[in-house]
Amino acid sequence: MLILTRKLDEEIVLNSEIRIKILSTKDGQVKIGIDAPDNVKILRGELFDTIKKETAEAIEKSSQPVIDISKLKLNKLKEIK
After folding, report:
1. Which of 14, 24, 25, 68 has the fewest CB atoms within 10 Å distance of its CB?
2. What's the start-to-end Cα distance of the chain, in Å?
3. H helices within 1-81, ranges in order?
4. Of 11, 14, 37, 13, nearest to 22 (Cα)?
5. Beta carbons of 47 and 33 less than 8 angstroms apart
6. DSSP readout, 8-21?
7. pTM for the whole structure
């Protein structure tokens, strides 16, 4: 993890396309502005973690069989000669 110290109105530039600017600090909070291309998704960390968890759960549920056919009693077809 890279740790940087920034002052009010200073910026951090990522990949020459994304700019993160310190807008204000007050009562232990920092307000930042992010300027990025429209195709870059920006999410709060806790929202990203929730989406990631729910996606993993959905994938796990979708890979489970709906019906366990091994427990079904099936009649075998008679071979016709």
Report:
1. 68
2. 72
3. 45-62
4. 11
5. no
6. TT-EEEETTTEEEE
7. 0.63
